[in-house]
């Protein structure tokens, strides 16, 4: 085996052929691919192994507009359709999931302000969040409130023109390093109608983070609990109406699930390309192992699943761009694409045999990373509940009060 770089000419080793709606979008994708080759791909394996979070890179992404792609130009965003934004996420995730998923989480963290904030709130805070180097996080889940988001216990009590927040959030991507958090807290009674959203600065007094979780994958992306101990937030940082926080949270998750779907296909594509290159170069019994029918059929199945997942998330994105309901399709895309990522990554390791199990090749990293995509922003069991509920209009309320969301 001659190392990781290959020069074999094969369609499966070429960049993904994409259908983009405008010349501007094609130029954007070219910019992204250049940035990946120059600044992300070269250090991805080593930085993930060392647990290094690329904070400077995220500032670079912000400065180039890649952290504000789906938001309005009026506030410094790129005003790109989701159809384009998600394909950018896919490319970033294929290069390094810490970066692709991080960009998706940042977009999720901006959603509450962009979609539910007042014009004055958006004008004051959104430009810095979209293009001035800030990094966001989304704080919904708690130690005892994951899938059952309506049972969260972090509480915000009004004190004049301020709110005082106390409680703990769990599984927060960018926890402890984010510059701002979109936080859901209970301001009323039990149930889904007692929750309100707040935009909390990362340096607020009384806000602290636990040590990052030790995870099986995505070691470069910090995931941590957040502790709110008398954190004071002015009422001007309340997003939307009192009691409307869960509606805001679930609306954000519908869009966020599309981000996870795109990241999943990015990981699947990277795993597939790694395995394909290996099977074309590796020889057994005097011929490339890709010539053996059993392996050729595996490769064909994996490529088909990746194409199907990409088509599914893009179809959901186009519904969103057209202003049509897309929540059911977003859940389907997240479910199918993350399952596809796990299947492709697992088979990629199998196709490479013992080499796939070693850290000398990235296949084992893709396999470890793919697993989390079946969990974040709604486990795949919750996605099935959401889909069934929306199909039948009845059931356990999976589409109304359940999120399965990890921050």
Mind explaining what this structure looks like?
This protein has 407 residues and is of the alpha+beta class. The chain has 11 helices and 10 strands. It has helices at 23-40, 44-50, 55-63, 82-95, 97-116, 119-131, 245-281, 293-321, 327-351, 363-373, 380-392, and strands spanning 136-139, 155-159, 162-173, 180-186, 195-201, 207-209, 223-234, 238-239, 283-284, 287-288. The protein has a 4-stranded mixed β-sheet. A 4-stranded antiparallel β-sheet has the order 2-3-7-6, with no helix packed on it. Strands 9-10 form a two-stranded antiparallel ribbon. Strand 2 (155-159) and strand 3 form a beta hairpin. Helix 8 runs antiparallel to helix 9 (327-351) and helix 9 runs antiparallel to helix 10 (363-373). The two termini are 41 Å apart. The model is unreliable at 1-8 and 397-401 (pLDDT under 50).
Summed up:
Helices cover 48% and strands 14% of the residues. The chain is of the alpha+beta class and 407 residues long.
Features:
alpha+beta; 11 helices; single chain; four-stranded antiparallel beta sheet
- Please work out how many helical segments DSSP would assign: 11
Largest sheet: 4 strands, mixed
Order of helices and strands: HHHHHHEEEEEEEEHEEHHHH
Mean of pLDDT: 92
Tell me the strand order in the biggest sheet. Answer: 1-4-5-8
Helix content: 40-55%
What is the tally of beta strands?
A: 10
